[in-house]
């Protein structure tokens, strides 16, 4: 039995599809976030966020999203959630915090939602 075909054109309300166009749009942001695998880069970002963002060539939309700590705007600006997880950690946001943001729930509401799905 064949697997059902995946329709790449299906839009899920409230989500940003990470496709090739978004990958190109977010290249600088994702590259910067990937650099946070090294402690010295996390420390350098904490010491001078503006300079660090400039070093990686982030555009104004990406910089503004980071300044506002707006993870959803970072995703809309081309950020891949897997790379953004490092940045969210720097901002002291948990995976549940980000899940709540993505679903329009508070962190506690999101945790309860997850429990209800078990």
Structure write-up:
- The protein has 118 residues and is an all-alpha fold.
- It has a domain at 20-92: Orthogonal Bundle (Protocatechuate 4,5-dioxygenase, Chain A).
- The protein has helices at residues 20-25, 27-35, 39-47, 49-55, 60-67, 71-76, 81-90, 95-103, 107-116.
- The longest helix has 10 residues, at 81-90.
- The chain is globular, with a radius of gyration of 16 Å.
- The protein starts with 19 loop residues before the first helix and ends with a helix.
- The model has no long low-confidence stretch (mean pLDDT 87).
Helix and strand topology:
Elements: H1 20-25, H2 27-35, H3 39-47, H4 49-55, H5 60-67, H6 71-76, H7 81-90, H8 95-103, H9 107-116
Helix pairs in contact: 2-7, 3-4, 8-9
What class do helices, strands and sheet pairing give?
mainly alpha
CATH topology of the domain at 20-92, anyone?
A: Protocatechuate 4,5-dioxygenase, Chain A
| Share of helical residues | 55-70%
Largest sheet: number of strands, sense, barrel closure:
none
The appropriate CATH architecture of the domain at 20-92 is: Orthogonal Bundle
Q: How far apart, in Å, are the first and last alpha carbons?
A: 29 Å
Class of the domain at 20-92, according to the CATH hierarchy?
Mainly Alpha
The ordered H/E elements are: HHHHHHHHH
Low-confidence stretches: none
Average per-residue pLDDT, rounded, comes to: 87
Radius of gyration: 16 Å
At the fourth level of CATH, the homologous superfamily of the domain at 20-92 is Dioxygenase LigAB, LigA subunit
- Number of helices, counting only DSSP H or I runs of 4 residues or more: 9
How would you describe the shape? globular
Beta-strand share of residues: under 5%
Strand segment tally:
0
């Amino acid at each position: 039995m064949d697997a059902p075909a995946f329709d790449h054109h299906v839009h899920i309300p409230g989500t940003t599809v990470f496709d090739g166009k978004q990958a190109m749009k977010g290249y600088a942001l994702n590259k910067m976030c990937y650099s946070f695998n090294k402690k010295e880069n996390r420390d350098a970002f904490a010491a001078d966020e503006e300079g660090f963002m400039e070093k990686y060539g982030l555009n104004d939309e990406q910089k503004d999203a980071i300044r506002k700590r707006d993870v959803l705007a970072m995703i809309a600006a081309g950020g891949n959630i897997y790379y953004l997880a490092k940045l969210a950690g720097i901002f002291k946001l948990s995976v549940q915090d980000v899940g709540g943001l993505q679903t329009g729930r508070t962190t506690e509401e999101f945790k309860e939602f997850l429990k209800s799905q078990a």
